[in-house]
Amino acid sequence: DTPRHQGMAKNTNMRWRLPLVCLLWELAMIVLFGVFVRFGAEADAHWEEEKQEMNLTSDIENDFYFRYPSFQDVHVMIFVGFGFLMTFLKRYGFGAVGFNFLLAAFGIQWALLMQGWFHSFKDGKILIGVENLINADFCVGSVCIAFGAILGKTSPIQLLVMTLFQVTLFSVNEYILLNLLHVKDAGGSMTIHTFGAYFGLTVTRILYRPNLEQSKDKQGSVYHSDLFAMIGTLYLWMYWPSFNSAISDHGDAQHRSAINTYCSLAACVLTTMAFSSMLQKKGKLDMVHIQNATLAGGVAVGTSAEMMLTPYGSLIVGSISGIVSTVGYVYFTPFLESRLHIQDTCGIHNLHAMPGLIGGIVGAITAAAATEDVYGKEGFIKAFDFTGVYQTRTPSIQGGFQAAGIVVSLLMAFVGGAIVGGILKLPIWGDAAAENCFEDGIYWEV
Amino acid sequence: DTPRHQGMAKNTNMRWRLPLVCLLWELAMIVLFGVFVRFGAEADAHWEEEKQEMNLTSDIENDFYFRYPSFQDVHVMIFVGFGFLMTFLKRYGFGAVGFNFLLAAFGIQWALLMQGWFHSFKDGKILIGVENLINADFCVGSVCIAFGAILGKTSPIQLLVMTLFQVTLFSVNEYILLNLLHVKDAGGSMTIHTFGAYFGLTVTRILYRPNLEQSKDKQGSVYHSDLFAMIGTLYLWMYWPSFNSAISDHGDAQHRSAINTYCSLAACVLTTMAFSSMLQKKGKLDMVHIQNATLAGGVAVGTSAEMMLTPYGSLIVGSISGIVSTVGYVYFTPFLESRLHIQDTCGIHNLHAMPGLIGGIVGAITAAAATEDVYGKEGFIKAFDFTGVYQTRTPSIQGGFQAAGIVVSLLMAFVGGAIVGGILKLPIWGDAAAENCFEDGIYWEV
Amino acid sequence: DTPRHQGMAKNTNMRWRLPLVCLLWELAMIVLFGVFVRFGAEADAHWEEEKQEMNLTSDIENDFYFRYPSFQDVHVMIFVGFGFLMTFLKRYGFGAVGFNFLLAAFGIQWALLMQGWFHSFKDGKILIGVENLINADFCVGSVCIAFGAILGKTSPIQLLVMTLFQVTLFSVNEYILLNLLHVKDAGGSMTIHTFGAYFGLTVTRILYRPNLEQSKDKQGSVYHSDLFAMIGTLYLWMYWPSFNSAISDHGDAQHRSAINTYCSLAACVLTTMAFSSMLQKKGKLDMVHIQNATLAGGVAVGTSAEMMLTPYGSLIVGSISGIVSTVGYVYFTPFLESRLHIQDTCGIHNLHAMPGLIGGIVGAITAAAATEDVYGKEGFIKAFDFTGVYQTRTPSIQGGFQAAGIVVSLLMAFVGGAIVGGILKLPIWGDAAAENCFEDGIYWEV
């Protein structure tokens, strides 16, 4: 079994704490789902009648067929993508993929409720369909990101507590951005990446462990663990066009989002490889960069992919984000740890925080630069939903609100992260001592 | 090479037996396909004319677009899902993924014929389309399940023989349930899981090896093999909503099946983690449970997912099945082995048999509780196909038939499994001695 | 670090060369995309107006919904399929999956341009949509194939140079076949496999390394690397029906392509297993065959899958290709190396070259055998696009042109491969000495 220094011994036995939290919370989910959640019109057996009322001639008009393939791709990103991306640590593969599985499985239930109350609430019921499933996965994506910062240093109970709070804050922030500021963010540069990453970085700052070098030998990868991590990388990379297009408007918007993301990601690989080689003395490539910075291109077009960013615009954004992210791994991560006491296990600052900010800014600029000429008269209104009270909003005002969305997301992340970090610091959650971090043997039968 | 005890030596050389079986059977497939199998209307080049006759205005009405994404997800579950789930054994990864590949590739061909004769036969020809491909994959799924019970203890020839018979029996059982009893079972709780699992358990009972402890050291996992197995787990878990919705009616039924399954699986993860920790002295999690019991929620809504089970109903079913399955791994599996001489390598009793029974029962109850109020007048008739001779069937009678479906599946599994087990016991199939079980070196160049 | 014989020392330091190539080429992409690439009508925000002009009543008519699920499957095949298939080498997993990632990410950008100029050029702009993304992935597939021949023996810079030229030649060859010869080749037996494989074999012949036995100990696999490779195999195998149907005509053609490919691949597994066992002295199976020859069935129906090949025809083609491919691994590969000095790391001659030729021939025969009776009057014209100047083309003439397509592809591969091989032989690209081949330590921080 795992040796512990006598003075540092912490009680990591989860025998009653973890089951209690899991079972009580699942019971709460059942009760809340029982009270609130019902099938939306397109998933309800009354759909036959609905179709007639809406004059739909074919079942293919059901939203299921517009979004289900993308939903499954997003689902793979959350569970295999994030899960395996984090298996790079030599002795924390079970924790990476297993705890990610646990927190995401809880998170999607809680997100269905939280987002449902804000967005799908009608006559006292939350009505769900495939778009809700995608949004729940998205919301949990922000928790998976934050998990990356504290990977290996927290107990599963802490992760569940963080998920509970982060999903709640995510939903509030999302409501402010999408409903109050009327901001576009289909791929979540702001709501998912900026918020999720800065939230996680704040939490890990609060949970700063001064003695973490005691487990330094376990913080690296081995040959095979790097290959497992590449499974995660590639699934995230390949399916990111689905991520950014999953909840875009039917038709051209979904189509365009996928193309922009495809282009941005392709460019990002080239600049990542270039800088990875350039910044190493012997010109060798570093798997850490390939596993992570190649994905920055997906993050950085998260807001603008459904806009008329254009393929060459996407190449530019992808190129820049790959450079920023790789440089971040080489220079910023050590700086953050040594100077700011931010211990960021997976380097989410480079993969999600900075590219997320780029994404928000690119989105604001792209929105501000929109013209009726480029979008067409109807396309312009549809793309930015300039109807009802927003009928008079101009592109430059929209750009301003987009920028405000970044600021709100940052504030929510810092304040929320600080509070949740404080809660997670309580000595009751069963986290391990510094010398036992990054070690599956603590929480798993190995 | 692998050492063998002199007295126990068995001839495991497959040099002529395996090629002979593979080639003759493939030849038989070619002949039978030549005589019987043709493209269905939607895959035939006459579709242009068909469209006009059916007054279809768009190619998108082709069933291909309703089902192909789900088909591919199911395909991944059968080949990567089941294949990698079984790679957990430290020295049987080639056999797990390779033999699963072999039996499934043969099985889908034979299933296209067997199911075709029962369900797609017209004017002397079997007319196939994407739904047939899904059904063939489903049928083979039941063989993959049974393979889990005998994993590591049988030769590839035995597996092919078992596949031949099990696909046949599956198709007969399926015909009795779907056509004679007019039972609903889109996700196959009864036809796939209950039948497949009890069939496999009966076979492994007949093939009982009293000296299996001689290969005990190889029956466990190593760190990396557990991560490979998690690839299988996650793909099964993520794509199970596609599995349960793949052959449901177009529109709301497919949509609803996916949502119910998503909910059930999410809840199942929480209760599995809870009980895995609770039942271990130090509260540590066991990868065996995480790899398997987390999937029980998908099995347990296999019959009812397309009904109006509701999201909270799904959470309840998923929660219960996770508990039952985990408890099964801790208490039932050792009991089955020591008392009943049922050696169940992968614990399919916990993952498929018990959750399959739960699924059948939940399906019967959900059907019996159906009302026109909940389904809508048209939805009610459509959901249970209460047309033609079944026009007068009431929900409670339907519930009774559903229950009868469970009993028939069990009988078919026990009787069929006993007969096929007897055939597989013949000393001509090249299986290994007890001390050489769970060892790739017997059948593979390593 | 890696030891090197003094006399053989080569400069493999890529510190300035690789970054320079990556950054300059990415810059070129940005400029060319800026000048030429725009969204096609279905991805442009003007789609709302387009819909009205084309009298489309639903967004579901957008090509995105017909092709996006298949696109994602193809995408997985290129990046995970080919990438992981090549991880079988014990010490070259990073290079396999990482360099494949690099060359494909560059290749798809260049392919969008090259193929765009030939096929999607309108009023000075290349208009792209989801079909262009699929075609770019297809084009890069041929580079991944060629990479298989030189795996472990080339620097990433050489791979990028090869990609630049091969994508160019691919596009020219594709234009000759599809536009000038009016040949059908939706799954690319000729354009992707025959061309890609013979191109790669010619390149590796030119780059012949007489002292390669110095790194012989690293040319094999280890237990775990073979399992990683099986991930690649299975994803290629499962998604091949999507590959062959991805750009077929909407409706029956896509549907039929998927069915034919599914059948061919299933049969191929059986004959591969048979011959793998038969050709080994003790009847044991060889993972090399299972990983590769099982896929030959997908290659061999690449041209004919969208035609009325029929399911039993597919079984025959799949059966034959599995045999040819397995026999190739046992007898041809050693012969090619010792006699013809063709060092083919992954055996692409067996997996792509020979099955590709079979595919071209089967396509020619199937086209020549087409009748209005089998296809229906309209289906016949639609299947072979016998409109406009091709209105009078008969099936037998079409068969002749199909055969000509094989010859053109071969010529282009041999001539192009020889030229590109010559360029790659220049001593400026940073390739490793023979004793350092198949070793990640040369180009990666390990």
Automatic annotation (TrEMBL), chains A, B, C:
Q: Where found in the cell?
A: Cell membrane
The protein's UniProt keywords, in alphabetical order, are: Ammonia transport, Cell membrane, Glycoprotein, Membrane, Transmembrane, Transmembrane helix, Transport
Set out the biological process GO terms recorded for this chain's protein.
Answer: ammonium homeostasis
A family per Pfam? Ammonium_transp
- Cellular component aspect of the GO annotation: apical plasma membrane; basolateral plasma membrane
Q: Which InterPro entries match?
A: Ammonium/urea_transptr, NH4_transpt_AmtB-like_dom, RhesusRHD
The record places domain Ammonium transporter AmtB-like at 62-428
Which SUPFAM superfamilies does the record cross-reference, listed alphabetically? Ammonium transporter (SSF111352)
User: Could you tell me the membrane topology recorded for this protein?
Assistant: Multi-pass membrane protein
Show the stretches that span the lipid bilayer: 20-41, 64-85, 92-113, 133-152, 159-178, 190-208, 220-239, 259-279, 312-332, 403-424
Query: In the UniProt record, does the keyword Transcription regulation occur?
Result: no
Please tell me where this protein is predominantly located.
membrane
Q: Name one GO molecular function term.
A: ammonium channel activity
Q: How does it assemble?
A: Homotrimer.
Q: Which family does it belong to?
A: Belongs to the ammonium transporter (TC 2.A.49) family. Rh subfamily.
Please give the name of this protein: RHCG protein
Query: Which gene is the coding source of this polypeptide chain?
Result: Rhcg
